[in-house]
Every structure is written in C-alpha cells, then in structure tokens.
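Below is a filled-in request sheet from our internal design queue. Each sheet records the structural input a requester submitted and the sequence that came back. We keep these sheets so that new team members can see what a complete request looks like end to end.

REQUESTER: design group, bay 2
PRIORITY: normal
MODE: inverse folding
CHAIN LENGTH: 226
BACKBONE (tokenized):
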C-alpha cells in the first residue's frame, strides 16, 4: 500500500477533533485571544507540518504555541521560538528568509520540513500521554511521505521521545533506547536522529541554547543528510 501524500496528511490533521481537552483549549484561546493580537483572527485548530516535499531534514517540535501556531496556522510561526529557529535555518541554508510571521509571508523551507509531535496547542505546553499517542500517527505518516528523508532534528526531550515513538511505529526500533541530549545522535533505521535543546525563551534567554549551538546542529544535519 502506498504512503499518503503530505497534502493528504495535512488535510486530515486540520479537521482532527480527537482530544476534547485540546479542542476546548485551542478554541478558547482563539476566542479570548491576548491583548497584543486582539485584532487578529486566530487559526484555532490543529496545525499541520510544512516545508519542502523533497526534504532530507525533518525538524520536530513539541506543539504549536497558543499565540504562535495556534494563531497563525503554521508551526513555529509568529512566536519567539520560531524567530530563533528560522533565523538559524536561514543561516544554514534551510530557509529562504530569516523571519516567519504569517502563513503568507513568503517563507520557503529548502530541503527541510517542520512538524510537531502534537498538532494542537496544549495548556501549559504539556500534552498528556494519551494526547501524544493520539497525534503520533500524523507524524508517522509525514515521515513515510517524506521519501528522501535522512535526518530528524528533535527540538527538546518531548520531541526526541515522540520521534523515536513515530519511527518505532514505522518498524524502526532501537535498543537500548538512546537518551536525549543537545547534539546527541542516534541511528534509527534509515534515519539519523539529532537532539537539540528547544528554542524556547526559557532556553534562549538564559543562554542554555545559543545561536551558534543551534547553527551547529543544523550544520551537522546538513552534513549527515548529504
């Protein structure tokens, strides 16, 4: 049986209502909004991945931000984490511009694709294990649809765990299970899994993750992807 296309997976993601807690939260945030975006119409739904269908590098995050991806409808778009991420992807040749503010801002990813373990913004940025598992099939199918994929960059421990689970669901298991760490590497079936601290403000403002550190991970991903 052939793998679904990225367009087919995205179409299923955006109509998903599997997790009542997440549906209620994402829609409440989109209605109540925050003061600085009070005049904007929020997406308020699940956020699909996006990027180059011929990507050799997949970047996996945790979930859309309540006033980032949940507002703009594109993962890592319109929030500080995305600002930090896409500047690095631009510097390392994986994006055509360093900014990402809306779905129609002209951003194109080059040889790369960006997705998340969970597709709805969760309260406190903490999906439950059941919510994670309900969403994982989407990531599995995106991986399968990215036929040239060679490298998965996991942003944070949650994404590392989710990526391993998704690849296990596709039949690629690793024992012993590799531990997450910044710049950690593991071979999982045909893929190389690279770990990176998440570009959250908690990490970037404290210096736990710096621009050179993030650039080095993407430079390594480019090198491994060939």
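RETURNED SEQUENCE:
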């Amino acid at each position: 049986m052939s793998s679904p296309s990225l367009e087919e997976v995205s179409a299923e993601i955006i109509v998903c209502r599997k997790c009542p807690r997440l549906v209620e939260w994402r829609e409440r945030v989109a209605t109540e909004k925050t003061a600085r975006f009070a005049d904007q119409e929020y997406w308020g739904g699940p956020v699909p991945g996006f990027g180059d269908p011929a990507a050799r590098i997949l970047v996996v995050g945790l979930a859309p931000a309540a006033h980032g991806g949940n507002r703009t409808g594109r993962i890592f778009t319109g929030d500080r984490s995305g600002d930090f991420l896409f500047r690095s992807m631009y510097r390392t040749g994986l994006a055509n511009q360093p900014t990402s503010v809306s779905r129609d801002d002209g951003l194109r990813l080059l040889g790369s694709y960006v997705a998340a373990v969970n597709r709805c913004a969760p309260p406190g940025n903490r999906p439950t294990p059941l919510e994670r598992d309900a969403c994982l099939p989407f990531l599995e199918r995106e991986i399968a649809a990215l036929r040239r994929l060679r490298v998965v960059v996991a942003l944070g421990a949650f994404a590392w765990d989710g990526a391993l689970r998704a690849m296990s669901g596709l039949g690629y298991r690793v024992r012993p299970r590799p531990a997450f760490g910044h710049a950690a590497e593991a071979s999982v079936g045909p893929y190389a899994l690279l770990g990176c601290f998440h570009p959250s403000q908690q990490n970037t403002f404290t210096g736990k993750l710096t621009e050179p550190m993030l650039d080095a991970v993407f430079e390594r991903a480019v090198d491994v992807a060939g």
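SHEET NOTES:
- Strands lie at 50-51, 57-61, 112-116, 151-155, 185-188, 191-196.
- The chain is about 40% helix and 10% strand.
FILED BY: M.R.
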